[in-house]
Every structure is written in structure tokens, then in C-alpha cells.
Design goal:
The protein is mainly beta and about 325 residues long. About 10% of the residues lie in helices and about 25% in strands. A hairpin with a 3-residue loop joins strand 11 and strand 12.
């Protein structure tokens, strides 16, 4: 796993002695709260430090944004338990820079995106629960059962999988990451949304349960310190499913591009989910960066294997996939 420099600390997290009463009118939320940009920066940094991920995640603050940078490749088990595979595997990103506004402003219109809506404190992007393209605002109010990545068995035991960019990300509560957190508990921030608001677990920070009807359509509620906060949940939508705060241009938020062929420069075509799913999928890796995803389909064994090629951000692949009718293919592919 690639190690990045440690978090640059700006000092201890500020203690807030005042908290404004949060108005039910979203437009007033930012005006009333006492949390300022410096304190917000320190809160983002501290959330990473206290969780114990400062050796692989960096946080810097500039231009009213905290940038959470990582290779998006977590140090926990990956891909185990997936049935509805898209025959793509997780690779480290070059550098994933997740921008977190330091002066978040709550809006009144939920925003959706067919990509990450935030980032976990271990640097792994957080998507909504679906895998069927961008949801409309109308879709947010109805469970998209056919696109539910959990119900369609697309997720591993940690709540994530590899997407179109061979990028690992979460679609629901990141249970394996939480198990690794040094400060795991109800009051621990597990991630940050791209509108600047924090993400917590299933309960309120004080340990009280989040009861039915408490969360809005984006899986969030008011917060005395930050003005607003998101939660994970045991039932759909499981995690943040839209952004309730102001973001600006959603197109400027980070994405992980698909791999390209070192020989041709062409983008790799996406894998196709084998009908009915696969069996016995297991992902293994060694300390030298060699990784293998092995599985079976209709009694036949298939695999995707890769190792560093010697060129930075490039990998030598050998694959036998259902997508390619079992034909063994090799090649060098790069970020």
C-alpha cells in the first residue's frame, strides 16, 4: 500500500463553547452557527489523525477548502463476498484529492451525482447506495431496489467494491474501516461529504439512536456544531445519498478515470456483470503489490491478476474473464 506523508497539524482541535440554535430554515443554518473555517480545517485534520490514518492520508487547507489526499486503497480486506461482480479490480489511484469546503452552507435542494459524494477518513471515496447511474431528485424518495448495490450482492463484506475506474469505494457503512479506527465510537466522524458536512455512524454523536423520521432524504439532520451532519443507517439508503449543502460545480469534483493501455493509449472497456453472479470470489494480495481476484462461473474458474510493471502507476495484467469468453489476455495498463 502506498504511504503518503503525515497530516500537517495546525494544533489541537478548537473547543467550541457556544453552539447556535439551528434554524429549520436551511438558508439560515450557516449564518447562525459559530463554527469557523479554521476550526473546520482542524476538525477535518483531527478526524483523520484520531482515526489513525495519518500515515496514509494527508490533509491540507487552502482557499477555504480542506483537501483530503490518498491513493483510495484501504488496508483492509477487499472484494470478499461479492457475487454480482463487474469483473473489475481495485488499484491504487495516482492521487485522489477530495475537496471539503471549510465554510459549508446548507441549501434546500438535494444534489445527486453518479460518482463520489464524499470521502471516508481513510481516504476511500463514498458513493450513494446505487449502481445504476445518477439518480434524479424524484429517485431519492423511492428505494431503487433494482440498483441497490447491497441487495444485488455487488458489495464486499466491508461495504465497498471496485467501480468503472478499477477504483475501490464504499456504497454503505464502511464496517471494516470503522473496525480499524482508533477512535471508533458514536462521536467519531467517519467521513466528510463534498459539501463540507461530516458523516457519522448509525447513532447520534451522544450515543442516542437515530429514530425513524429523524433523517432527511439525504440521510442527514441538523447539528449544533457543524449546522448539519450525515449518518449511515441499517436500512436504505444506508449512507449519504445526496448532498444537501451547496457545492458549486459538481463536475469539478474528483473522479477516478478508467485504466488505459500502455500500448495503445486507449481506455479499457468496462467489464460486464456475469448473469446470475459468480461464486467463491476471493481477492488476494502480497506486500510486493501483486494482486489476484479469483472466482468461478458455471463451474469454470476465472481470474484477474496484476502486479506493478516497473513504470510508475502502470501494471502488468493477466486476465481470464467471463466478459472476454474465458480468453486469456495480457497487457500493461496504467492510471
Amino acid at each position: 500500500m502506498k504511504h503518503l506523508s503525515s497530516v500537517k497539524s495546525l494544533g489541537p482541535l478548537a473547543v467550541f463553547l457556544q453552539s447556535a440554535a439551528f434554524s429549520a430554515i436551511p438558508a439560515q443554518a450557516h449564518e447562525d452557527k459559530s463554527h469557523d473555517a479554521k476550526a473546520h480545517c482542524e476538525a477535518v485534520m483531527t478526524s483523520v489523525e484520531k482515526a489513525g490514518f495519518a500515515d496514509t492520508v494527508t490533509v491540507t487547507c487552502e482557499d477555504d477548502r480542506a483537501i483530503i489526499s490518498s491513493d483510495t486503497y484501504p488496508a483492509h480486506e477487499l472484494m470478499t463476498g461479492i457475487v454480482g461482480t463487474n469483473e473489475q479490480v481495485p488499484l491504487p489511484a495516482k492521487k485522489y484529492d477530495a475537496p471539503i469546503p471549510l465554510k459549508p452552507v446548507l441549501g434546500d435542494t438535494p444534489q445527486t451525482r453518479d460518482a463520489a459524494l464524499g470521502v471516508a477518513v481513510n481516504g476511500v471515496p463514498i458513493f450513494d447506495y446505487t449502481g445504476g447511474g445518477e439518480m434524479t431528485e424524484k429517485d431519492l424518495h423511492h428505494h431503487q431496489t433494482e440498483h441497490d448495490t447491497y441487495l444485488t450482492q455487488q458489495l464486499d463484506i466491508c461495504g465497498g467494491h471496485a467501480g468503472r475506474g478499477d477504483d475501490y469505494h464504499y456504497h454503505m457503512k464502511p464496517v471494516c474501516m470503522i473496525a480499524q479506527m482508533e477512535n471508533a465510537g458514536n462521536d467519531a466522524i467517519i467521513g466528510w461529504a463534498f459539501d463540507g458536512f461530516p458523516i457519522y455512524g448509525d447513532n447520534n454523536p451522544d450515543g442516542t439512536p437515530v429514530v425513524e423520521g429523524m433523517l432527511d432524504v439525504c440521510n442527514g439532520q441538523t447539528d449544533q456544531t457543524y449546522g448539519y451532519r450525515y449518518h449511515t443507517s441499517k436500512h436504505a439508503p444506508y449512507i449519504i445519498q445526496c448532498l444537501m449543502g451547496e457545492v458549486g460545480d459538481l463536475r469539478e469534483l474528483p473522479r477516478t478515470a478508467p485504466l488505459t493501455s500502455a500500448a495503445t493509449g486507449q481506455t479499457v472497456e468496462p467489464g460486464q456483470p456475469p448473469a446470475g453472479g459468480v461464486e467463491n470470489l476471493i481477492f488476494t494480495q502480497d506486500k510486493n503489490g501483486s494482486r489476484s481476484m479469483d472466482y468461478s462461473y458455471h463451474g469454470e474458474d476465472y481470474y484477474i491478476r496484476y502486479s506493478p510493471s516497473g513504470t510508475e502507476n502502470c501494471y502488468n495484467f493477466e486476465t481470464k474473464t467471463v466478459t472476454n469468453d474465458g480468453e486469456i489476455q495480457t497487457g500493461e495498463f496504467c492510471r
